[in-house]
Amino acid sequence: MKAYKMKKTLITTCAVLAFATPTFAGGLSDAMVAPEVIAADTTSSSSQGILVPIMALLLLAAAN
Questions:
Q1: What is the dihedral of CA 40, 41, 47, 50, to 10 degrees?
Q2: Long-range residue pairs from 43-52, CB within 8 A, at least 24 positions apart, any chain
């Protein structure tokens, strides 16, 4: 009777360990997620390129 109980305990322990091992395989660390890359448009308006020369002409005209 003692051998039967020992065998049953051993089988139960092995079954519990076999099913519990994959539970710890992942660990408790956070999942690695790739950061999302956001590309910003950096185009400037073409009116800014002409603004400085116009202001310079106005200042020269006002000075004369």
A1: 80
A2: none
Sign, Cα dihedral of 3, 4, 5, 8: positive
| Helices vs strands, H then E, count in the chain | 2, 0
pLDDT, tens digit, 9 for 90 and up, residues 1-27? 677 788 888 999 888 888 776 665 566
Per-residue tokens: 33: 């997620």
Give Cα 57 to chain centroid, integer Å.
Answer: 52
pLDDT bracket for residue 49 (50, 70, 90): confident
